[in-house]
Amino acid sequence: MSKTILFFGDSLTAGYGLPTSQAYPALIEERLKEKQYSYKVINAGLSGDTTAGGVYRIERWLHEPIDIFVLALGANDGLRGIPTRETSINLQTILDKVKRQHPEVKIILSGLEIPDIVPGRYAAEFRKLFRELALKNNISFIPFLLEGVAGMRHLNLQDGIHPNAAGQKLLAEHTWKVLEGLLSK
């Protein structure tokens, strides 16, 4: 019987500007098949989504069987300068809803960062909120999903924000390093 991994995120998860097969959840699914893990991957990435949108959108997925939940929301909050406290509360609400419906679920939180060029303390507070949530909830954590991709012109689409196919492969690598330890054959 196959298990389910739900990737819940924004355009980074959806693979904005690319065929769905090049988005990192699809690359993870390929690797799972190669290594003969029996998991189905659901890509619930929605371009433009914020954590506030995710609080309402998660309801649609809660009736699905979920064995591993990968939460990768918050990039659009950071780009819009939404207060970090609000982002943190929204992410916690999503985590609570998932845990309430699926008490045995294994969870991975994908951390995000915004450039330090943003004035004031916002960038530091934004980076810290993901670490604090991971610790508070005792869940697996990817420190920075876009590590080595953000700001690298050759790994992003022309907009300089969304990873291209090569960039998505790095997102898959970062995710796999954490995910692999949660898998069962």
Automatic annotation (TrEMBL):
Query: For this protein, what is any one GO molecular function term?
Result: phosphatidylcholine lysophospholipase activity
> Record's InterPro entries?
Ester_Hydrolysis_Enzymes (IPR051532), Lipase_GDSL_AS (IPR008265), SGNH_hydro (IPR013830), SGNH_hydro_sf (IPR036514)
One GO BP on record is: lipid metabolic process
- Give one Pfam family, short name only: Lipase_GDSL_2
What CDD domains does this protein map onto? Lysophospholipase_L1_like
Tell me which residues make up the SGNH hydrolase-type esterase domain: 7-170
What the entry lists under PANTHER family is as follows: SGNH HYDROLASE-TYPE ESTERASE DOMAIN-CONTAINING PROTEIN, THIOESTERASE 1/PROTEASE 1/LYSOPHOSPHOLIPASE L1
Q: Give the protein name, as stated in the record.
A: Arylesterase
Question: What organism does the record attribute this protein to?
Answer: Pontibacter arcticus
Where is the organism placed in the taxonomic lineage, from the top?
Answer: Bacteria, Pseudomonadati, Bacteroidota, Cytophagia, Cytophagales
